[in-house]
Amino acid sequence: MKIETLGVIGAGQMGSGIAQVAAASGLAVILNDIEQGFVDKGRSAIAGNLARSVEKGKLDAAAKEAILGRIRGTVRLEEMAAADFVVEAATERQEIKFQLFRELDRICRPEVILASNTSSIPIGRIASQTRRPDKVIGMHFMNPVPVMKLVEVIPGLATSEETLKATWALAERFGKTPARANDYPGFIANRILLPMINEAVYCLYHGVGTREDIDTVMRLGMNHPMGPLALADLIGLDTCLAIMETLYDGFKDSKYRPCPLLRKYVEAGWLGRKTGRGFYEYR
Ligand code: CAA
Fold it and tell me: Which end of the chain is flanked by fewer CB atoms within 10 Å, N or C?
């Protein structure tokens, strides 16, 4: 199966990053979101990233225009009929993803693979919304997508070997390194990362250290590129909480209980960088 046109659902942080790497690797991209404003914001984030690469001499201006020229924004989901492969990166809410997969199943050609960038919803559960569960798979990109090398590839119970191979090859075409995780809560990346972040929040909650000291310990003591609290702000505290809830619900093991302080921040609307305030303040 030839993949020339990629459909991307969701023009937020993850969707726009996926659209950028796909267009940079030569694919035509149809970038969809529910409001024109979201599509425009996604496009300008991509344009900003590419402009930075031009300034640094890593990309020439003509290549930047060519990449942008390959991305077409739309608010009409029906346009996914032209896609050869779809990656869904919409809001991390089960009912939103279920609805989208039912519609994509209706709109897309029967041979088209429908991948989800979900960070925590079981792939089998999403696949069961469609009449093509063998062609539904997890394709989990890391934030920031243009920089991070990993794509976690998650076959569900019914996903075919052919779908797995095609998804793996597409991740490689994007210049990424795929790793396989099976369909259990949090897969591999978030099963390991989020309990660490949650524990950092507990350290803050129990007054073991300040936000700066907690992050300094992990940056300089463990060589992490950023501290866990700064990373939580980058991921989004609502997303962190949603993933902890998924681990807790999925395993029914108290070691995954979300820290009350994390919940309190989310309830206050302190979601991290995207709202200007999380564990740190952003202008
Ligand atoms: N978009 C695009 N490019 C970006 C970027 C962004 N949001 N942020 C940084 N970059 C680029 C910079 O332009 C720079 O590019 P060049 O090397 O070409 O100059 C490069 O990344 C390095 O950036 P900086 O020098 O500004 O800063 P840094 O060296 O501190 O790196 C970082 C920033 C890449 C974010 C680094 O701190 C890092 O790797 N942090 C950890 C990120 C991480 O763990 N991500 C996974 C989150 S978990 C997840 O995504 C899964 C989930 O489901 C929750």
Answer: C
